[in-house]
Amino acid sequence: MVNFIKTQTSFANGEVAPNFFANSDIHGLARMENMDVISGGGLTRRAGLKKIAKLSGPARLIPFSVSETENYTLAIMNGVMRIFAGDTIVQDMFVPWSYTDTELLQYSQRFGTMIFVHPNHRPRILSCVNGEFDIKNFIFASSDDNGKYYIPYMRFEDSENINITVTYDNGNIHFITGVDFWTPDNVGGYLSLLNNSWLVTSYIGPRDIIATTNGTYLLPNNPISDWQEAAFSPRRGWPTSITFHQNRLVFGGSKSWPGGVWMSRVGDHKNFDIGTGLDDEAIYFTLLSGKRQHICTLISSDNLQIFTSEGEWAVSNKPLTPESVDIKMHTAIGCVADRYLPPQIMEGTTVFVPNNKKDIRELVLDDLSKNYNANNLSALSEHLINNPIDIAYNKNTKKLFVVMSDGNMAVLNWNSILEIAAWGRYTTTGKFKSVVASGGDTFVVTERGSQYFLERFDDNTMIDAGEYPYTVCARGLPLMSSGHNAKNTRITKITARVHDSKTLFINNYRAEFPNEIYSNDSSGFSGDISVNVLGTIHDMVDAPWEISTSDALPLTVLSITTYGRYQI
User: Fold this and answer.
1) pTM higher than 0.85 for the full model?
2) Which residues of the chain have pLDDT under 50?
């Protein structure tokens, strides 16, 4: 038998999938649970969870930042929004959305206001003034002079051959069609004809509605073919996605027009009048390709990024004007359409969940800043990504959190300068349901039993929610991953170099620490801790070592050295 010593000083690739176990160039682990990779490449236990508040049910978390020092966390439940400033509840308010609605609820913030959109709900504006929150309908701009209502208008495909006869009867204006066209959902929507905006007030039948306007008009003698509907209405649906870009409010997609993009006038975010096409006037276009484009979400970065179910687009004009819309489909990955998973800006790149729900991608410009690539951030750890339901990036801790439908979280420790891209898994007693980064902290909604809680990761906390210990674990890659293509291996000793630590199990054996480090004023032991292990590994895909603990004590591991003999 041949003696060997193997030392691993970096875990910068985190937990990797089994198909990479034989790759000797990987600084990874077979398992990394409830541990993070620190800047030097070592491992430390994750922060514990501090219980903040009990919630009335499951909740979706949304960040709201007024300034560097004024940050809030919004927890949306069934018809109720609870607003937190740090760990403190500041306000409860009624909202029009159910918890199920939050799966498609999108939002964008500008200064002290946030606009929410949902394909089945009228947009709402949440405002914060002096710490007081208020929510109200988003109302498009209008003109008192001519009765114009500056919502975007368009002609839908099912109305192309529809003519309207305008009649006056007993004080009401009727819009009559020759075939069945109107529905009760037309009530509350706007039409554009006779140089006016008309609000539909009553549904008489499938060929007859009543409408009103504030503008002046003359009854036409003939049926009207030149008319349009509001792009957004109870019948046609409301915007699917939203962002602000180059001082324009941008809506992307709707239930009836999934590939449309509508941009407001510059600096006038409620005015979508396209006018005569001047540089500062509103812009409208539809994404066209060989496949039907369903816009999933929008991101304002260096360019306006448009994520659809079929691919990733970008509008690169600077400045963006009606006469210069340079739009291009760069990649054909496709984004999740049945749930809003907000793309995250991470070190200048846009991170998103593709529609396969089995990996995490980053949209990044090439070296010439002309074309985007959609790199797979989870290629080494693809087994950890399965049906994400929420995502958030904390730029202070450089961690990307991805909540899975099974209640666990995949967490990416990311530092491109130090070449750290380490995925691991977070578990807790119960399930993670939502995650958000707000004010430098990371908050989660947890389901414990049949109850739901808002909790926060806290570096000074060693157990979850004050009562749930959790196990931390790191398991080494099989020895064959370093060229030891052996038949049998005998492990004689395992040494862990630790820093400020007070607990450690090596291969389920408790390591002995000096007694004096357990005093309250001691930060812990720093140095080498060894366990002599006599055992033979016959299956060479087994891990040669595992470090773990369930103790509520600090643990940081800088390196692992394995001593033994192997037979070829």
Assistant:
1) yes
2) 481-482
